[in-house]
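Researcher: We're teaching a course module on how sequence relates to structure. For the next exercise, students receive a sequence and then see the predicted structure as tokens, so they can try to spot secondary structure elements on their own. Here is the exercise chain.
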Amino acid sequence: MSRLRGLIDRKLIKFLLVGVINTLVGTAIMFGLYNLAHCTYWVSSAANYILTSILSFLLNKYFTFGSRGKRAGEVVRFAVNIAACYLLAYGIAKPLCLAALAGAAPAVRDNVSMFVGMCLFTAFNYLGQRFFAFRDT
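Model: And here is the predicted structure for the students to work with:
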């Protein structure tokens, strides 16, 4: 229980603020590409994370975790974390929602799946950034 309390601090609050910015931008990209541009589930969700990852890196590096290092290792760890969290979150969300919403229209299943993927990604990403990407801070 004390480990859990250690996760709830100023870094978490800052991470959530950065997340709100990224979520607003990313949600517009992802759902806009899927529903308006008729891109696929994977293209829409991947475009969201590719485009918002740069902003997320800069804001979380300097604002959230206060990292001042200029090492390439942070960039590599951040990219690995984003890729792993994306594949894990959306890889779980897609089949889960397909099974849970088997009778729903494909667009409904995909939209719900993208939302579930966003939620899973946020949780995995916070842990990955805090304990892997920016672990030295």
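Model: If you want an answer key for the exercise: The chain is about 80% helix and 0% strand. The chain has a mean pLDDT of 88.
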